[in-house]
Specification:
Elements lengths: L2 H33 L1 H19 L2 H34 L3 H10 L2 H4 L1 H10 L8 H20 L5 H32 L4 H37 L5 H10 L15 H16 L2 H15 L5 H8 L10 H26 L4 H23 L2 H4 L4 H29 L6 H29 L10 H14 L24 H4 L17
Helix pairs in contact: 1-2, 2-3, 3-8, 3-9, 3-10, 4-13, 4-18, 6-8, 6-18, 7-8, 7-9, 7-10, 8-9, 8-18, 9-14, 9-17, 12-18, 14-17, 15-17, 15-19
Pfam families: BT1
Family: Belongs to the major facilitator superfamily. Folate-biopterin transporter (TC 2.A.71) family.
Organism: Trema orientale (Charcoal tree)
Length: 509
């Protein structure tokens, strides 16, 4: 079957089906949803999921919900809180050291181009996505179980296991991201919807993860709680067996050596990144993250200190993060309902400005000005967390949509992984930069005298990012950014005959 026939097979049935499905559901529910606002709120998300499932393969939608909801949302948020307590209470290390360790969690995410190339270039028994979901599940389960059952581990061994769990999440996410990138190219009008689905699931999963983390860390201990994280990766193993994927077949003269495929993929990446339309926004995404230095560990140690800080309990710390995760869903809804039609440059400028202003709430809290204003610590920290989460989510979503817009067809998995690697390098720089500032200003487990200065430096750096906004294109979020020839499979594709994951309605297969 040639590429034109394949395109026709994918495009035409999905278009016809989407119209039929969507119009039918709209007709049957219009009266109920317009007359009863409560029913509309309840029914609308299901109609939205039905619309996505009708235009895309339902197993793909299931995979997005599973990876972003249960793995990236629940497991990762649970992991972040419990691992903080693990280093603080079990390993008893300084906050600046924990900040550096947390930066090492980003190493598997920096390696996203490697995972992306593996899924694009190295199929296993003819499958390019399924085996890597299984691999991620095995790595995650073994890493979590080792920390829980290994007793008092050496810090290096414990760090290796926690990095292993991070790698499991990264491999699962890069595999599903390849599918998302392909669909964002083939169905440009659904790109924003797919990102909204990803981050809504992530926020909902994080809500449950954060809420459970403090309670379980208090009752089971940090080490026992980390052991519970061996269970969610089993879902990835299940996904590897149930997600629909068309088996890759090559014959005779069409067979290409793996090394040739790898060379073509790397060549396509190099060709794409040279375009100013691509490298400029990529540079902005890195600098906007790197310059926003992370002070999380310093604040966490201060939060839980009985002398210098407010001495929040484990349960309350989990509740704080859970409430923040709830409001981050509001950030997704705000973006989906009101901001997804704004040009990239406009929305990123506004949210970065808000991000800098919101950071000043941390400064007010550390200096205890909230008490001078008569606002209790418990109330103020919840307000600060909610505002921060909403703005952070509104800041991330357009950058993710922008990333999908920069991917060429044929190597979308590898190139999207490269862009996520750039983001991870930014996060790594942010964590290590924050760790160095904490160390230089002598913020320790018991001395928080200069923590306010660390927060102030971080906020000023957030405002400095506004000077780089010229790197972002002025185009709308639904317009094509990269040159049109990169959207042709023949220009960058490593295999014109293979489809990575068949993202078409089931009756069109």
């Amino acid at each position: 079957m040639d590429s034109n026939e394949t395109t026709a097979l994918i495009d035409k049935p999905s278009h016809d089906l989407s119209e039929t499905k969507f119009d039918t559901s709209t007709t049957t529910t219009t009266t109920a949803t317009t007359t009863n606002p409560f029913v509309k709120i309840v029914v609308e998300p299901f109609q939205w999921l039905q619309m996505l499932s009708s235009q895309l393969n339902p197993t793909f939608v299931f995979g997005v919900i599973l990876v972003y909801g249960f793995i990236q949302g629940f497991s990762w948020s649970f992991f972040k809180v419990v691992s903080d307590y693990y280093w603080k209470d079990v390993q008893q290390v300084q906050p600046s050291v924990v900040q550096l360790y947390a930066g090492l969690y980003s190493v598997p995410w920096v390696m996203k181009p490697v995972w992306g190339l593996m899924t694009d270039v190295f199929p296993v028994k003819g499958y390019r996505r399924r085996p890597y979901f299984v691999l991620a599940g095995v790595i995650g389960a073994v890493s979590a179980a080792t920390v829980a059952l290994g007793g008092r581990l050496a810090a290096a061994v414990a760090l290796g296991c926690l990095i292993g769990f991070s790698a499991a999440v990264a491999i699962a996410e890069v595999t599903i991201d390849a599918c998302i990138a392909r669909n964002s190219i083939q169905f440009r009008s659904l790109a924003s919807d797919l990102q909204s689905l990803c981050w809504f699931c992530s926020s909902a999963g994080a809500l449950i993860g954060y809420f459970a983390s403090g309670f379980l860390a208090d009752h089971l201990g940090p080490q026992g709680s980390l052991g519970l994280l061996a269970a969610p990766p089993a879902l990835l193993i299940l996904l590897g067996f149930v997600i629909y994927e068309q088996k890759t077949t090559t014959t005779g003269c069409s067979e290409i050596k793996v090394t040739d495929k790898l060379g073509l993929a790397i060549g396509g990446i190099y060709k794409t990144i040279k375009f100013p339309e691509v490298w400029k926004p990529s540079l902005y995404m890195y600098l906007s993250l790197a310059l926003s230095i992370s002070t999380h560990e310093g604040k966490f140690y201060w939060y839980t200190n009985p002398n210098a800080g407010p001495a929040f309990s484990k349960e309350f710390v989990g509740i704080i993060y859970a409430i923040g995760a709830t409001t981050s869903i509001l950030g997704v809804l705000i973006y989906h309902k009101t901001l997804k039609d704004y040009p990239f440059r406009t929305i990123l400028f506004l949210v970065q400005l808000l991000y800098g202003v919101a950071g000043m709430l941390d400064l007010i809290f550390i200096l205890r000005w909230n008490l001078a204003l008569g606002i209790p610590d418990y109330f103020f920290v919840v307000i600060e967390e909610c505002v921060s989460r909403i703005i952070t989510k509104m800041r991330w979503l357009p950058m993710f949509v922008l990333s999908t817009r920069l991917c060429p067809l044929g190597i979308e998995g590898s190139f999207f992984a490269l862009l996520m690697c750039i983001d991870s390098l930014g996060s790594l720089s942010s964590k290590w930069g924050g760790g160095m500032v904490l160390h230089v200003l002598h913020v320790t487990r018991t001395d928080f005298t200069n923590l306010w200065l660390v927060i102030l430096i971080g906020n000023l750096l957030r405002f400095s990012v506004l000077a780089l906004i010229f790197l972002i294109p002025k185009t709308s979020q639904s317009e094509v950014i990269i040159p049109s020839d990169l959207l042709s499979k023949n220009s960058t594709s490593i295999d014109d005959q293979d489809e990575n994951l068949e993202q078409v309605p089931l009756n069109a297969e």
